[in-house]
Amino acid sequence: MALLTWNDSYSVKIKDIDLQHQKLIDLINELHDGMKSGQGSAVLGKILNELVNYTKFHFAFEEKLFEKYVYPDARTHKREHEDLVKQVLDYKESFDAGKSVLTIDIMNFLRDWLTKHISGSDKKYTPFFTSKGLA
Question: Is the CB of residue 91 less than 8 Å from the CB of residue 108?
């Protein structure tokens, strides 16, 4: 069973970003499924690496749009990105070192952060970017 399911309430009305958000949800679900089914550290580590790398890619994509269109709330939004990347890298480093395992608390953190970020911070830029012709 999926930890998180995409629905239209998450849409920021920008196709490329919606597709990226869906990919992030898929990766979180894949990590969750792997954890629940007791897959080994190597498999979970690979999925976690993919999640970290895709998150960085997605954030860079958004931040390029912020810069290109001079999004007024870019600094605050970028700080949120930096905070999440730091937290996820801390989890990954601890996991890679064998100091921690993926837990439901970590999965819930990722789910909650992503849904709150999309529904809050990302939705704030929808009117700005759509006024610039992005869709």
Answer: no
User: Could you read off the pLDDT of 42-101 as tens digits, one per residue?
Assistant: 888 899 899 999 999 999 999 999 999 999 999 999 999 999 999 988 888 888 888 877
126: its two tokens: 């929808």
Using the CB atoms, write b or e for 30-62: b if 16+ within 10 Å: bbbebbeeebeeeebbebbeebbeebeebbeeb
Q: How many CA atoms lie within 13 A of 61 on its CB side?
A: 15
What domains does the chain contain, in order, with CATH numbers? 9-131 (1.20.120.50)
pLDDT at position 126 over 90: yes
